[in-house]
Design goal:
With 519 residues, this protein is an alpha+beta fold. The chain has a domain at 47-128 and 175-341 and 383-489: Outer membrane efflux proteins (OEP). Helices cover 57% and strands 11% of the residues. The chain is built from 10 helices and 6 strands. A 4-stranded antiparallel beta sheet has the order 1-4-5-6, covered by helices on one side. Helix 6 runs parallel beside helix 10 and helix 8 (317-338) runs antiparallel to helix 9 (383-449). It is elongated. The model is unreliable at 1-22, 38-46 and 70-74 (pLDDT under 50).
Length: 519
């Protein structure tokens, strides 16, 4: 590293001190300015960096394609606003409102503002700090001469000064701090995006569940009506002497058993509606009126572009955030390493004093000083070296977290792909089963009315039909939720810019004012 030579005469001569002139202040300021410029240029030219330079994480071996399909990079499409593929206007409205009002998203926005302010604060370390002071004091002195105490007349002293200090970033410690703060800001922005991905997925999943419970409630009510009709038919046969009490008891029990499912489904529906209200930043019953009318379970028609496993490094915000945290931890090693090297600072001050305020501008008494100082760590019992080792261990922890997050992301996508694929197969079989059970129930009931079939056949057919139709509704809900899980696993989320500049609480009357009573 190049060395520097700096020659400064910071102390004015005796003649200058006793006979201040306007030229003295100009000379002092000029000399201080020259020293500052020389040190700034020297620091800029000779400044270096210590600690490791971040070149990206050591990526583990990633599969070339997903296990359930062969994908190419051309298959990688945008996942922005993937919920529009569900084709449900009310769901779109709920998601739009949740993005604006959800408390967790508001918290993530505040974290971004904090990270940006931290970066601005850290950037200030590259520049000198300047402060000014002014004072007005009444003074009186006494002196003893030949055993006589002589008092001087009281006088007023006016003083003013400017002080500055600047630490040269010769070994890049401040630059490493700025680098860490910048990567912290980038990580906070990715965390905000991850909050939006999670929020949108949760709103969609709870909405689908709510529609599923509404469908199951409607099915149970329709089925119980049909089963009550069967009970009436069985009672009529029993009263006519062609039936028996066992068949009547079974018919009544089956209808009651189906009706008993309704309160359970209604309680689950209420829980989903309440959760949706919270996600939208409302009271629990804040969206109950919007979901009062039943609607079909959203059924996606368009497949999601899965791309390649390597695409998750950019598309998954939690993976991107973990990578930025790794970069931040790497920069902090250099920040800690820089503390083991000498620190060079430049300090300077210019002051003036006079008996009258008007004389301050006449340079009645001017003093100034400027010069560099060097602080060299000599012995600290290994404290600074231990700080470096701590930063290195934290960097390794950040890498392990990044690696784990990436592997979890791969697992999420694989699980969602398998679940969605198999659920679609299951739904096809359940549709076929429900269709045949519906026909069997119709035929058995018709034969029972004519006396050609036993009541056991009717009871079994109706029970099987209800079970098949209920399972089919659950399968539709599961398929939609697997679709949502896949979109979340791939990192699909909000595409529009998010305003993070507006704070949640806007303070007023923050200037000087009379303090109110503390509450």
């Amino acid at each position: 590293m190049p060395s520097h030579s700096l020659f400064v005469n910071p102390v004015p001569s005796a003649e200058e001190s006793h006979h201040p002139t306007p030229g003295l202040l100009r000379s002092a300021i000029s000399r201080a300015r020259s020293v500052c410029v020389a040190l700034m240029l020297g620091g800029a030219l000779a400044g270096c960096a210590v600690g490791p330079d971040y070149t990206g994480p050591l990526k583990p071996d990633l599969p070339s394609h997903w296990s359930t399909r062969t994908a190419s990079r051309r298959d990688a499409g945008k996942l922005d606003r993937w919920w529009l593929r569900l084709r449900d206007p009310l769901l779109n409205r709920l998601i739009e409102e949740a993005v604006q009002a959800n408390p967790d998203v508001a918290k993530a926005k505040a974290v971004v503002r904090e990270a940006r302010a931290t970066l601005q604060q850290t950037n200030a370390g590259l520049f000198p700090s300047v402060s000014g002071t002014a004072s007005l004091t009444n003074n009186k002195t006494s002196a003893a001469s030949s055993s006589v105490l002589v008092d001087s007349a009281p006088y007023t002293l006016h003083q003013g000064s400017f002080d500055s200090s600047w630490e040269l970033d010769l070994f890049g410690g401040t630059q490493r701090s700025i680098e860490a703060a910048l990567r912290g800001e980038q990580s906070a922005e990715e965390d905000l995006r991850d909050s939006l991905v999670t929020l949108i997925g949760d709103v969609a999943a709870y909405y689908v569940e709510a529609r599923g419970y509404q469908a199951r409630i409607a099915l149970a009510q329709r089925t119980s009506v049909s089963q009550r009709d069967t009970e009436k038919l069985t009672r009529s046969k029993y009263e006519a002497g062609s039936g028996n009490a066992v068949d009547l008891a079974k018919a009544t029990a089956q209808a009651a058993s189906t009706e008993a499912n309704v309160p359970t489904y209604q309680a689950a529906l209420a829980a989903d509606v309440h959760r949706l209200g919270i996600l939208l930043g409302r009271p629990p019953d804040g969206v109950a009126s919007m979901l009062a009318r039943s609607a079909a379970v959203p059924a996606p028609r368009m497949p999601l572009p899965t791309g390649l496993p390597a695409d998750l490094l950019q598309s998954r915000p939690d993976v991107a955030s973990a990578e930025r945290k790794l970069a931040q931890a790497t920069a902090k090693i250099g920040q800690a390493e820089a503390d083991r090297y000498p620190a060079v600072s430049l300090t300077g001050s210019v002051g003036t004093s006079a008996l009258r305020a008007g004389d301050l501008a006449k340079y009645s008494s001017v003093s100034w000083s400027v010069g560099p100082s060097v602080t060299v760590p000599v012995f600290d019992a290994g404290k600074r070296l231990a700080t470096v080792r701590i930063a290195e261990a934290q960097r390794d922890q950040a890498f392990a977290t990044f690696h784990s997050t990436l592997l979890t992301a791969l697992e999420d996508v694989e699980n969602a792909l398998v679940s969605l694929s198999q659920e679609r197969v299951r739904a096809t079989k359940l549709t076929e089963a429900a269709k045949n059970y519906r026909e069997a129930a119709r035929l058995s009931r018709s034969l029972f009315e004519t006396g050609s079939a036993s009541f056991i056949d009717v009871l079994d057919a109706e029970r099987s039909l209800y079970s098949a139709e209920d399972s089919l509704i659950q399968s539709k809900v599961s398929a939609a939720k697997d679709y949502i899980s896949l979109a979340k696993a791939l990192g699909g989320g909000w595409s529009d810019p998010v305003d993070t500049s507006t704070p949640i609480i806007v303070d007023t009357n923050t200037g000087p004012h009379w303090r109110e009573t503390v509450k």
